[in-house]
Amino acid sequence: MEQQSKPSQEETGMEQHTQQSKLITSRRSFLSRGLVVGGAGVISAGLLANGLPAFAEERSGSITKGDIAILRFLSAAEIIETDLWQQYNELGGIQDSEVPGGSGSPGYVAALSVLDADMSQYIHDNTEDEFSHFTFINAYLVSKGANPVNLDKFRTLPSSKATGAQQIGRLTNLMQLTVDTSWWIKYRSRTKNPDLGDTFPPAIPGLLKGQFPAIPRNDNDLKGFVPGTTPTIPKHLQAIANTAGFHFAFIEQGGTSLYPSLAQRVSNPEVLRILLSIGPTETAHFQTWMDKAGNAPPLTDPTNGLVFPDLNAPGGEDTQTNLIMPEPTIFLNRKFPPVSIIRPTETQGAATGAVKALTADGLFIGQSKEFFALLNQLAQEADAAQR
Ligand SMILES: [Fe+2]
Ligand SMILES: [Fe+2]
To answer: Which of 38, 121, 153, 342 is packed most tightly, with the most Cβ within 10 A?
Structure first.
């Protein structure tokens, strides 16, 4: 980390040249050009730059076009994550100098706290992590002479009108979600894997059958809340917090798969290191949220009929709430013994698949054609990257 933040003169220093030389001398095409490589393999970058213009693209900051495409897509995904987590933090998290904005909604916080007393801290920390993810990736892209990603012009969606939310334009919509909770069963299955074509039913079927808010849309959604040491939390408000609880895990299990999926097509070892270092933080988030979602109280929202069933009801081995560690399942081929793994990790179409999942989630309801065009373009470029 420290090494990457050194001033730019040092990046053009000897160590960098040696790395570039290694990168370039390892290429078969280099040898096929009939150039003689010295015994020590030390070649000045200048000679290569002058003599081998064909390598110019690969040599550019020593990361490939494909690596840049993968990082740019991840930056966009992290900006999107940040935008939605920011909205959760303004109402349900902790608003401080690390994650400023908003002033909190005591009713929403009380309903979230039913899932865990530390929900506000976890929301805050997840939000801060997402900020750091896109800020780092963008800074890294700039350090390699590549364009960072900026989605500011698409911050056009409305904020919640509930007291505590900032009134600013948003990239994402948390008020009309259709949350897919099949990940709950996907991670509990001992015999199935999405990479082998298997599908999974949702743990909360109702969340796939409509559009539901995961944050209070306005103060009406908080009606009936009575603060106190034992607060009164109306079922509708609790349903909103439950929806958020499952949505948190939906988002983070997506990141948990996205990083290892894309890492398989990264070329540069340092870019690989970035993906291998950020990806597992998404998994840390996911497991925390899966644990908390399991505490969402069973209920029916009287305003819209949304049902949160008892996931620990008898006969429900695939939904048992305390199975928060990935159950061993089949991997690569059914002939191998089951193994505890992240799933899916198929690399083909991973980025476009992520865009599809986020779109189906309702996160982008209200977004412009231009937004979808840009996001799809970034995804397609990432999916075209090759090692
Ligand atoms: Fe992230
Ligand atoms: Fe995340």
So the answer is: 342
Q: Which ligand is nearest to the CA of 286?
A: 2
To the nearest 10 degrees (0 to 180), the angle between helices 269-293 and 119-143 is 170
pLDDT score for 68 = 98
CA of 80 to the centre of ligand 2 (A): 10
Give the pLDDT confidence of 217-252 residue by residue, as tens digits: 999 999 999 999 999 999 999 999 999 999 999 999
Convert the pLDDT of each residue in 166-187 to its tens digit: 999 999 999 999 999 999 999 9
CA of 122 to the centre of ligand 1 (A): 14
**179 CA distance to ligand 2 middle (Å):** 16
Ligand 2 centroid, distance to 111 Cα (angstroms): 22
Report the separation in Å between the CA atom of 251 and the middle of ligand 2, taken as the mean of its atom positions: 7
> For residue 200, how far is its CA from the centre of ligand 1 (angstroms)?
25
What predicted TM-score, i.e. pTM, was given to this entire model? 0.85
Q: List average pLDDT for each run of 10 residues in the chain, which is 387 residues long.
A: 35 36 34 31 32 41 91 98 98 97 98 98 98 98 97 98 98 98 97 97 97 98 96 98 98 98 97 98 98 98 98 86 96 97 98 98 98 98 97
